Amino acid sequence: YIRPVRASDAPAVERICLLTGDAGASAAHLHSPSRQNLLGAVWAVPYVLMPYTFGFVLVDDDDDDSSVKGYVLGATDSDAFARAEEQSWWPALRERYPLQPRADEEPRTKADETYIGIIHRAPDAPHPACLALSPAHLHIDLLPEVQRQGWGRKLIGRAVQELEGMGLRAVWLGMDPRNEDAAKFYERLGFEKIEGAP
């Protein structure tokens, strides 16, 4: 079933982000053991813990940390969310993961370096063409065991219901162009490419 995300879901959300982070497949092998949290720290956990956000998780009947199987997370005001991240999310991560490796740290993989770079420059500001459509954006990830069962459609539907309740009439998302299955899924739900946006 689907319920609102809770702060205590952050570890499960981080894990799902990693296990779906390579164009829908696991990205665990791309990161060093001590940096398995990088994808979640950039693309998922802030939406669980920061203001200007919304989120829902798919859980099985036990509803414990291991029962979270997927999520839809997003920002209701993408600009305000980005400013809040810059003020109170990125500084601690930048200190934890400096651009220049420390002498005593585990060797970095190429993916580690990429994500540490993202942390230091922060993800790009929302594209003006996206913001012209809506201030709201979302992310969705489901573990393979619950894919192709209608849960993605239900999660998106719940997010849309939430946003409509706030008076918002549209939502946008970014996606890895390598993830062809995701592109087909979004098209089936009525998402379209935004003219002028990457």
UniProtKB/TrEMBL annotation:
Recorded superkingdom: Eukaryota
Protein name: Acyl-CoA N-acyltransferase
Organism of origin: Vararia minispora EC-137
